[in-house]
Amino acid sequence: MLKIEMRTAEQTCAPLVVARSKVDHETKRLIATLTHVAQLPSDWGIRIGEIAHNFRGVLDHLAYLCVLTETNGRVPSDPEGIAFPITDSPAKLQSRERLRKQISSNGWAFIEAAQPYQGWDGGEFLPILRDLSNHDKHRLIQPALLGAAEWVTRIKAEGNGCRIALPRSQANGISMTGRPLEPETEVFSAAVEITGSNPTMEVEFHTAAYISLPNGLGVEATLDGIGNAITQLVASAHSMFTSETIGDQARDLPRRIESAHRLAPRPGVSVTVREVRTQEGSLWWEVLEPG
Q1: Bridge-based pairing state of the strands 29-37 and 13-24
Q2: Does residue 88 have a pLDDT over 80?
Q3: Residues 212-256 pLDDT 10s
Q4: pLDDT digits (tens, 9 = 90+) for 32-70
Q5: Is 202 strand, coil or helix?
Q6: Which of 23, 50, 143, 216 is deepest in the core (most CB within 10 A)?
Q7: Between β-strands 283-288 and 2-7, what pairing exists: parallel, antiparallel or unpaired?
Q8: Phi, psi of 162 (to 5 degrees)
Q9: Stretch 72-99: mean pLDDT
Q10: Cα 161 from Cα 60, distance rounded (Å)
Q11: How far apart, in whole angstroms, are the C-alpha atoms of residue 289 and residue 46?
């Protein structure tokens, strides 16, 4: 049995993930599945939603400043129609008529070059921000505990009333990387020969854990990627803002990006795992939040 636990501030343990193995008589396979996956603290999802909202606000403000270069700092005629578009094709961008009618030619060229379909380094994070921001408008973004790059399974050739069938290549460790862990998820399968009436097999799992967005991407790397992409856009647009008033607002954008980063639930992003053996001989894991 594999148990992953998180120690709380009160130094008590609550199980996050439990995996158990059993021998299936019909298929003659040893199968390990997740039997329990706990939800992570809800405030992590709230904070990630706030970060997505703040990052999106920086982009929308950047689009607003591009419009101000056309109006010479005057209030735009249609401010509600100003939002930084994140589109998947030129046709979808051209449909943003309310913005296009107000923005300068240089500003529109900048918006076009900033679209993720242009293939610039970091642009792939903008659709992720768009989806996070849209998701946050409707319901809580809840992170999920994932398996890391390595999920190692160790089994003995002989069990109680069964043994691993040959060839060993029929034993399948299933990668958990990039997949939210959910109850009933199969994590291991191996063909066995049943030699007794009550077959059991000792299985050990060795894994790590990290906190992820619902799409399977790691929280820390994704938020850093989004922040870096927005920082690039702000820096590349700076030369358009020659007016002192507009330039002052533009110089404030990096501070807003940094402020958004500080909201990230960093203690929950990376976790360390250590092995603990119980008196019954079961293999446990403790996941400890770094201080």
Answers
A1: antiparallel
A2: yes
A3: 777 777 787 888 899 999 999 999 998 888 888 787 888 888 888
A4: 888 777 666 667 777 788 888 889 999 999 999 999 999
A5: coil
A6: 143
A7: parallel
A8: -165, 160
A9: 94
A10: 65
A11: 19
